[in-house]
Design a protein that fits this description.
The protein is mostly beta strands. It is built from 3 helices and 14 strands. The strands form 2 sheets. It has a 6-stranded antiparallel beta barrel. A two-stranded antiparallel ribbon has the order 8-9. It is globular.
């Protein structure tokens, strides 16, 4: 209750120049995988040299791995269960965190799903695997912050979000990169002559204490 009263007292402030990403789940198909990389097909365009997060379900463990796009090609193929031709991207990802304790979890996942080895590399073997549904790409949708408080924010973005769904959210606040779990509480379509956008209300559900402190310190500078 004390936290709720503090949030109400903090008020909501109009801000400018603050942005972030809502991390939405994007579909992908796995072409092959190794301990240090993965090749995928996805309908989403991924930027060269940008880092993305992949969520891997391995037995009872959930593994989050960061990977950087090292190559990408656009081509067309038939959509699943349809004769419609759709554009898809083949993308090569270099996994950057597999020299840590996460390596064993990734090796377990490959062992569970491997079909056959494709070739031998200096750092290991590439495998074709089953289980594309067990790997998800957290695709970032950019937004701009219009209003900010300790308990939530109003953002504007080019994509709609589902009401009452909680998303992982990145917030770039000054020199800090904050990680927040936020629930969509309202979504209003904004029509303009230039483009279509949405004003979306986000309620903060969970964040590290240091990130909450960073927002509080920033809001203090606006009073």
């Amino acid at each position: 209750m004390e936290q709720e009263r503090e949030n109400r007292k903090s008020g909501r402030y109009v801000v400018d120049g603050i942005s972030g990403n809502v991390l939405n789940i994007a579909d992908l198909d796995i072409l092959n995988i190794s301990i240090d990389g993965i090749a995928i097909e996805t309908p989403k365009r991924l930027e060269l040299n940008r880092e993305y997060t992949f969520k891997i379900q391995s037995q009872d463990d959930i593994l989050h791995l960061k990977g950087r796009v090292v190559w990408a090609m656009l081509f067309s193929r038939e959509a699943k269960n349809s004769e419609k031709i759709i554009p898809v991207y083949r993308v090569g990802i270099h996994l950057s965190e597999t020299l840590s304790e996460k390596a064993n979890l990734l090796l377990n996942f490959i062992e569970e799903h491997k079909i056959n080895a494709l070739d031998q590399r200096l750092v290991g073997m590439r495998f074709q695997i089953t289980g594309s549904d067990d790997i998800k790409l957290e695709y970032p949708y950019g937004y701009k912050v219009k209003k900010l408080s300790l308990s939530g924010m109003l953002i504007r973005m080019d994509h709609t979000l589902d009401l009452n769904v909680t998303y992982p959210i990145e917030l770039f606040l000054q020199d800090r990169h904050l990680h927040i779990e936020g629930k969509v509480v309202n979504c209003e379509k904004i029509d303009s002559e230039k483009d279509l956008s949405y004003d979306i209300g986000i309620e903060f559900v969970m964040m590290p204490d240091e990130d909450s402190d960073a927002i509080r310190d920033f809001l203090q500078t606006l009073k």
